[in-house]
What we know:
The chain crosses the membrane at residues 636-655. This is CSF3R factor. By secondary structure, the chain is mainly beta. It folds into 6 domains: 35-129, Immunoglobulins (Immunoglobulin-like, Sandwich); 136-233, Immunoglobulins (Immunoglobulin-like); 241-334, Immunoglobulins (Immunoglobulin-like), CATH 2.60.40.10; 345-385 and 392-428, Immunoglobulin-like (Sandwich), CATH 2.60.40; 435-529, Immunoglobulins (Immunoglobulin-like, Sandwich), CATH 2.60.40; 541-626, Immunoglobulin-like, CATH 2.60.40. 9% of the residues lie in helices and 44% in strands. It contains 5 helices and 48 strands. It has a 5-stranded mixed sheet with strand order 2-9-8-4-5. Strands 12, 13, 15, 16 and 17 form a 5-stranded antiparallel sheet that branches. Strand 26 and strand 27 (357-364) form a beta hairpin. The longest helix is centred in the C-terminal third of the chain and has 30 residues, at 631-660.
Amino acid sequence: xxxRGVGTLLLLWLxxxxxxxxxxxxxxxxxxxxxxxxxxxxxxxxxxxxxxSCTIRSxxxxxxxxxKVQITWMLDNKPMAGSQHRGPGGTExxxxxxxxxxxxxxxxxxxxxWNRIKQRVxxxxxxxxxxxxxxxxxxxxxxxxxxxxxxxxxxxxDSHLPTNTTLKCARHPCRCRRSRAPVVTCCTPQGRxxxxxxxxxxxHLYGQMEIWVSATNALGTAESQHLLLDPMxxxxxDPPALRSIQSVPFQTDCISLAWEVARSVAHMELECELRxxxxxxxxxxxxxxxxxxxxxxxxxxxLFGTRYxxxxxxxxxxxxxxxxxWSPGRNYTTHExxxxxxxxxxxxxxxxxxxxxxxxQLRWKAPRQREANGRVLGxxxxxxxRRRGRDTPAVCNTTHTHCNFSAPPGTRRVYLSAxxxxxxxxATEVALLERKGQPLAGLRAVPKDEHSLWVRWEVPxxxxxxxxxxxxxxxxxxxxxxxxxxxxxxGTITGxxxxxxxxxxxxxxxxxxxxxxxxxxxxxxTAAYSKQKAPSFAxxxxxxxxxKSDAELCWDPVPVEMQNGFITxxxxxxxxxxxxxASAAVSPSRSSFVIRELKPSTLYKVHIMASTAAGGTxxxxxxxxxxxxxxxxxxxxFLTLGLVFVLLILLLICFQKxxxxxxxxxxxxx
Length: 670
């Protein structure tokens, strides 16, 4: 009996060393076949209840025939409490109920305790998750090279369970058939891919097919929306090739295009689209409804002298398939025409010279592409309009958009025109009008962003025909326009946006001129920043004068290019050796300040801070020492000392005179 007990203990000890076997049971339960673990379902919905039972057959577990057997549970490494009772045939049974299983995967272990030794005797794998989500966004395309159909889709939410995904397909029955064609698995994606390719032998070209995605796991099956399609309708067509582009007829805004369709689609009825783009507009213009087999088409409405980029694509005429890729781009420049329209011009003039000739500075805006009709080669300014058959002498012939010239006294009009390789525009009459009247009221400028300003004003009593806005950086910077300007031809507006050459932290002087029919109004002026920050540096303080209680300081204003904004104030700070700090704010228009009520014979440190609306910058510190006495006290002291000195001199003189008045050798008294 003792030998048998020793053998049983040896078996139990050896069972502790046995590894987990692929079957899921540990050494004793698998080796001695005395325990079994049963689970209601090894795969359950996440969050649902789980029931399990562990049955021990003591007669099959040598050494457990006698004594009480204690059964315990472990979920992974966490102890769980079960209910144990004696079952039929002398078995010991423990039941376990988990009301809510919130793990996606776990191992449930059954343990037996005998003679204070615990042993795992059985296990079960439990998985939890959700039924598969419905796949969506299913689409397919046919490759005309090998006539294979590639389908792709998007997976739904993760089910946390092994899921088998397949692409199903079936021929769509015709009306004469009542039974549905058999469903076959067309293809299976690799791994976790969400696409696969159906070979040619499973396809029914030029016929309707029903295609869908099926996802299956232990908790159910989900299907995507079913596609009903003819594989040829979703063929990926090769793009056409643009062969030639030309203007026809000449001097119109129409062009003719010719193309060839790809050989792989030459047998198909095709519908094509043309798109084109010009450099000034990033958007494409689309022309549809073009028959692919026609090979040529005409389009109108193009700008003259403009370089366009053209592309073309096609699809089957059934209009249910995919468009081909856009063809490689082809560039074409339309023929030029003489410039059209009026030029926006602005001027300033002053009398000069003995003959009182007029010195004129004329500026204008280059025409937009729509009016330029090609590449502008230059501009001409004349003092009289051009007449047919007679050239008018030009005072300016330039490629720039400004011109300075001298005009005879009494000149009231000049004429400006632009020309290109195809001809010259009609002349724009520029009237050199007198400047008079009241300036605009309420002129102000506010930032829109770092590179633009809104300029606003009040409508004058007599509405003008237009406005001219001028702005100039302060101080002017080489490379920027000395005075940028723009014309607003709507006389009823009360504001305009300026954007040309606007930079943050720079001051701009802005002027607005109202233009009337017979005069130019007197300008109104303002200044503005598109964005402000603290000044680049603060002024350096200088000591102008000092006494025992006052100190007068002065400084040079911050240069405009270093202000980075409007200076709102200067602040003077001073502190003595005992860290008593005081300050005073000074108007930005001042350049000096007197600190009062200082202590005599005391050392002070003083600095200045220059501030804008966006922040302040401190200057270097200035050290000063107040005097013991002020000027009046020093003068009084010197005056007192002088008087004392004079009195001492006088007393000394008196004593000397008194000493000389006594005769030498006088007889003494009896």
